[in-house]
Amino acid sequence: DVKVTQSSRYLVKRTGEKVFLECVQDMDHENMFWYRQDPGLGLRLIYFSYDVKMKEKGDIPEGYSVSREKKERFSLILESASTNQTSMYLCASSGPDRGRTDTQYFGPGTRLTVL
Amino acid sequence: DQQVKQNSPSLSVQEGRISILNCDYTNSMFDYFLWYKKYPAEGPTFLISISSIKDKNEDGRFTVFLNKSAKHLSLHIVPSQPGDSAVYFCAASEGSAGGTSYGKLTFGQGTILTVHP
Lengths: 115, 117
Known about the structure:
Chain A is about 0% helix and about 55% strand. Chain A has strands spanning about 5, 10-15, 20-25, 30-40, 40-50, 55, 65-70, 75-80, 85-95, 105, 110-115. Chain A is globular, with a radius of gyration of 13 Å. By secondary structure, chain B is mostly beta strands.
């Protein structure tokens, strides 16, 4: 079974703080993703990575950065947290599966509140 | 531009009856479609998928239908159970088989399914 873990289930931070969200997967997947989920907006892609040290912007990268120093670990960084970054953050990974890489496996999510 | 749309924010169904969740897409390059189920305070879990070369895929109580000409897919759950109450997301992928899309998915907004006992 694929396992994707996230460092915190719940996090409360103050405006202006630097926030690190960590994600680890144990399936040797090449691809890793960070999303945020907000009511009525579905899952929106923030950043993704297809290899170590490689990253690509998703649909809403503003205010975020990422780091992938090791294949199994993908970090999301909020450089200066703002209240509009209060959200559920979801990490996912995917790898070759019957010739495709589409099926993503998600972690449990981190509910971040910025005060 | 919302390329994947789930136009029903919510659906309420009686236990034992059929639940039908719908999804529309606009990008004709999408060739693989997935459904995910999400409980509150948990990450989405993969449910079922379908390739664009098929029009139906079945797995137990779950069946996904794809109508390419209408750019429409639906998820049927028969019979519905109270434990099926969750948010359902459809997602689409564009040509990752041998390509360079890196498995990137585009998600719909989600439909909240409530199954009443």
